Amino acid sequence: MHDLKALRDNPAAYDTNWARRGLSPQTPDILKMDEERRALQTEAQQLLQRRNEASKEIGAIKAKGGDAAALMAEVASLKTRTAEIEQREATVAESLNQHLSALPNLLADDAPDGKDENDNVEVGRHGEPKRQNTGVDHTDIGEALGMLDFELAAKVAGARFSVLHSGLARLERALGQFMLDTHTQDHGYTEVIPPLLVNDDVMYGTGQLPKFRDDQFGTTDGRWLVPTAEVVLTNLVREEILDMGDLPIRYTALTPCFRKEAGSAGKDTRGMIRQHQFYKVEMVSITLPEHSNAEHERMTECAQNILKKLDLPFRTLSLCSGDIGFGARKTYDLEVWLPGQAKYREISSCSNCGDFQARRMKARFKRPGAKETEFVHTLNGSGLAVGRTLVAVMENYYDPADGGIFIPAVLKPYMNNLEKLMPLSQNKGSEQKSA
Fold this sequence. Notes:
Shape: elongated
Distance between the termini: 54 Å
Oligomer: single chain
Helix content: 25-40%
CATH superfamily of the largest domain: Bira Bifunctional Protein, Domain 2
Number of domains: 2
Strand content: 15-25%
Strand order of the largest sheet: 1-10-11-12-15-9-8-4
CATH architecture of the largest domain: 2-Layer Sandwich
């Protein structure tokens, strides 16, 4: 949501910023609706004032035994006209709100300009790929291990689902627990187990509704399966006035995520890169406006630290104006190297949303001694997408000599100190090789 007063004061700044995303000028229509709404409000107030005056006059006339029929007819007419005006004002206000709700956040000045993902700017790289291209991707590896099954998933759920079992199921669980432990113990996030079903207001608060309704899974009772834990964690402060001393607030959660992937027909149909259901560890920060840029850098470093601990090569991109998300001012994407595809693929996205979500949620704070409240700033980031991290581990730690997967050192405590996952067929039902 946007500050309507600020938009009135400087509409050119808004249109110039939205033009960086490829949008045509939006403020003429907004200001026209806003002007009509305010004019209707003024007319309704004037009609109410006249009704009150006429009612007093009627009382005075009747007190003297006079005939107030004409005034009474005027009051009845004013009442009808007021109802019409109020109805029209409500319609215009709803149209204005819908229009504003569908417009993306304003971009940060230092977000690079560009048309699409090809114009994103690489700002850092860590590690060198151990293998440039094995020619074997995670799908082949998992199926050869006997621990990844897409056909079985299709029988029970359809396309874009998978069944993991045995060592791979344990490895994915280990990754999620390792990420949570790192974020809570090393990075200072508070772990949360949130609801996975939410209402319209919550989805609106973080920007999924109304624009991205078709991407969401809804229930028959009017709720939504969360597309990411960001939705719930950010809304934990909705309609709150926070104590300035309590900021920043940092939350993390490991949850399933559910997405229709409505706009991804034909993309990543093979394997586990893009599925309807997946696990993700999410980070959310609620902070002061003056601290949000620094918090953004910190959050990105927290996500990077997971990849560093796993010894996975990755690069960091600053997303350009044509690729940045709807609710973000600025976004860093982390892309991990996948030898099976011989390219970097997104594994985390860390965004500073400024006060965009806070306005929709009415999440505020108050400075000591101040009369007015201010909107907090919200940030979110993947820390990391667990399924995609499993893909990266499988491909980067794959041993073509025997088809096994070496266990990253930081995950061994979560895997009973296993050294390597081996194909079930080679171990007569044992999927592991001990250290």
